[in-house]
Amino acid sequence: MCKTQFVFEYRDYPLIPIKFYYNGRETPIIDALLDSGGDFIVLPNAIAKYLGLRLIKAGFVDTAGGETTLSKSFVNMDINYKDNKRTYQNLEVHISDRNDLPVLLGRNPIFEDHEIIFKKHENKLILNPIEK
Fold first, then answer.
1. In total, how many domains does the chain have?
2. What is the C-alpha end-to-end distance of the chain, expressed in Å?
3. Strand residues in 27-111 grouped as ranges (E)
4. Is residue 30 part of a domain?
5. Which alpha helices (DSSP H) does 5-118 contain, by range?
6. Looking at residue 52, what is its pLDDT?
7. Do 21 and 31 meet the contact criterion of CB atoms below 8 Å apart?
8. Better-scored residue on pLDDT, 87 or 65
9. Is the four-CA dihedral 62, 116, 7, 80 of positive or negative sign?
10. For residue 49, what are the contacts with CB-CB under 8 A and spacing of at least 6?
11. Could you tell me if residue 78 is inside a domain?
12. How far, in Å, are 39, 56, 106, 107 from residue 53 at the CA level?
């Protein structure tokens, strides 16, 4: 586990730079929205298609943006911070059938692996690794 503290700029939204990769394909670095109200990571369908993910139907959910159909898959993900990164391998993600949603980083696994500190007055979002 990466023991590096990550400190991100926090302006209007809590964004974390991440990269997904699967089977030889990878995304550019994407600013993903940290979603404390979500249980899991949600990707727009376009990213899943780009990576060539195999999708398994998971059901329907109501979100703030309306109802959406979700599938699930597995992917590798890096959290990027300067010259450091935290890698998650074979991470379960959910895929929205909509493409008008950002990448959402829900509580699993980010909140399980980090103490999260919002310092809005300093424009900082801090991820401190939790010793397990």
1. 1
2. 9
3. 30-34, 42-44, 56-63, 66-81, 84-96, 104-105
4. no
5. 45-51, 107-113
6. 97
7. no
8. 87
9. negative
10. none
11. yes
12. 20, 10, 20, 22
User: At residue 110, does pLDDT exceed 70?
Assistant: yes
With CA atoms as reference, report the closest residue to 34 among 63, 5, 14.
Answer: 14
53 within 8 A of 33, measured Cβ to Cβ? no
Q: Mean pLDDT across the chain, nearest whole number?
A: 91
Question: The sheet that has 114-119: what strands, in order across it?
Answer: 6-9, 124-129, 114-119
Does residue 89 sit within a domain? yes
Residues 113, 93: Cα–Cα separation, whole Å:
16
What six digits make up the tokens of 124?
A: 């900082």
> What CATH number is attached to the domain comprising 60?
2.40.70.10
**Whole domain around residue 63: which residue ranges?**
6-20+36-129
Q: How many Å separate Cα 15 from the centre of its chain?
A: 9
Whether residue 75 is contained in a domain is answered as yes
